[in-house]
Amino acid sequence: MDEGKQPGTPGMNDIISIIILLTVYLIGLIFIILTINDIDRSSKKRKYEKKLKEAIINGSLQNNDICLLAERWSASHEHIKSALLSVFNDFLTDNNFSHHVPRVRELITWYEKYAPFTELPEDIKQQLQNIISLPDVSESEVQLLATSLHDIYNSCQKKEKLARRINYVLGAVSIASFCISLFQILFK
Questions:
Q1: pTM value surpassing 0.70
Q2: Which positions, given as ranges, span the membrane (predicted)?
């Protein structure tokens, strides 16, 4: 036993072992949470696609309903298009549903035309719709503007998400550093 150490007090190696063990558990917990989140997202995407098919078969789906259903099932802008293409493929290859193919084509065309508006903030979306309603305005130019604004908006969203993740990591590192310093001070 060390001369300056009291019996029952943890040594620096014990503290480091505990911190490493807690870090491993925390990393494992993060991976479990990410896996569950991914499973949930995949499940919602499948449900969105299923509801989309059912609504097309029932004939009750209006064009903008594809975006409303996507909001309900937390489907992203990219998944809406892939879901429409998947439904198109399924209906095209299945003779029982081939009569729905023109409707799916119509939905795909509508979505490609109005997709840039779907994920924009409401104020920008409203302004673009007002511009379209003006006389002597080329709708194709407004669509290009909407696409550009959509790309800029998505880029900003991705940067904000990355900044939040970096802040979380830096916060965790700060807390770990504080804990290590505290243990060193308390058990010196």
A1: no
A2: 15-36, 168-187
